[in-house]
Automatic annotation (TrEMBL):
Residues 247-348 form the M23ase beta-sheet core domain. Keywords: Plasmid. Gene3D superfamilies: Glucose Permease (Domain IIA). This is M23ase beta-sheet core domain-containing protein. GO terms for molecular function: metalloendopeptidase activity. It comes from Cnuibacter physcomitrellae.
Length: 356
């Protein structure tokens, strides 16, 4: 009774149902062990004397004293089939301590505190707190560039440490108040782009009169008896109005619309274009022989209906052949004069100046 009370004290953490089930199992095991012990004891008491008598009467197992041990162990008589050859179970008094020891182990294992499962709500709270912290950090990083872009005066210094190493020198990021650059406008001046130079002999002031002086006794003369303005020279230029060529093959004289145009030398009329078909518009071409070389003079943009010569007609130097107009590709009334030597355009201003 004392031992049972001590065991009940140790199993206090078990429930009543668990305690009753454990006691019933132990009691059943104790009864079964007792029955096996009694059965084996009765069988041994009945069968053992008969077996011993058979061994005593067997001449094979009888030998005189002092005789040598046989070289081989003789065969024993077989055990009857109705005799249990398994080892006898422990008596009741010897089995009780073993049962009590196992029972104490079961009770100790059952009395151990079981780990409490984690609460899902607590785990969710932890994840929620981590997510809120990450969101607040992202908002802070976004707010810093936004304040700088808004033009607010901010000074931000931040040191970022790498997770696996420590930076020896902190990284600083500073922004000051935005300011606009001042431009000294008074230090600049506006000027028109320089026009390509005319021939080396062309006067600097080309848009005024007296750009040339005509010698009426020369075999080669200017297309006008007196000096007139020149609006454009020979060679590369900027396209006038975006419609003219950038490689000017002649010189443009601007004495005014309707002014008479004269032949620069004696010659024969090769071509008279009386209708305006673009390009040079209404124009006349005269062939000459000057200094023993074939030379042709072209007079473009004439006034419609003004040509006074016919193709194949011989003309004299200074003879009027038409009037200044604005036909063809033109931005104003002028005469476009070209001089070709051996079918190659040359500078008319330089050519006439050298021979007038």
């Amino acid at each position: 009774m004392t031992g049972r009370r001590a065991l009940r004290t140790t199993v206090a953490p078990l429930t009543r149902r668990e305690t009753l089930a454990l006691e019933r199992a132990l009691h059943a095991e104790l009864i079964a062990a007792t029955e096996r012990t009694e059965t084996l004891s009765d069988a041994l008491e009945l069968k053992a004397p008969t077996a011993l008598l058979h061994l005593a009467d067997d001449p094979v197992h009888t030998q005189p004293a002092g005789a040598d041990e046989p070289s081989s162990v003789p065969d024993l008589a077989p055990i009857p089939a109705n005799v249990d050859s398994s080892p006898p179970p422990l008596p009741r008094t010897a089995a009780l301590p073993s049962i009590r020891t196992r029972r104490a182990g079961w009770e100790a294992a059952a009395s151990r505190p079981r780990p409490r499962p984690r609460s899902r709500s607590a785990e969710g709270k932890r994840h929620g707190a981590r997510a809120a912290t990450a969101l607040a950090f992202a908002v802070a990083l976004t707010a810093i560039p936004a304040l700088s872009a808004a033009g607010l005066p901010t000074t931000h210094v931040e040191t970022v440490a790498a997770p696996a190493a420590t930076l020896t020198t902190p990284q600083d990021f500073a922004m000051g108040e935005a300011s606009s650059a001042q431009v000294a406008r008074d230090g600049y001046s506006v000027s028109a782009p320089k026009k390509p130079a005319l021939a080396a002999s062309l006067p600097t002031v080309a848009r005024t009169a007296d750009t040339f002086t005509n010698n009426p006794d020369s075999a080669v003369q200017w297309p006008f008896p007196v000096g007139v303005p020149i609006s454009d020279g020979f060679g590369p230029r900027e396209s006038p109005g975006g419609i003219g060529s950038t490689n000017h093959k002649g010189v443009d004289f601007t004495p005014g619309q309707g002014s008479p145009i004269s032949a620069i030398a004696d010659g024969v009329v090769r071509l008279v274009q009386r209708s305006d078909q673009g390009g040079l518009g209404v124009y006349v071409v005269i062939d000459h022989v000057i200094d023993g070389q074939p030379v042709s003079s072209w007079y473009g943009h004439m006034l419609t209906g003004s040509p006074l010569v016919e193709e194949g007609q011989a003309v004299k130097v200074g003879q009027q052949i038409g009037s200044v107009g604005n036909t063809g590709v033109s931005t104003g009334a002028h005469t476009h004069l070209e001089v070709h030597v051996n079918n190659t355009p040359v500078d008319p201003y330089a050519f006439i100046s050298a021979r007038n």
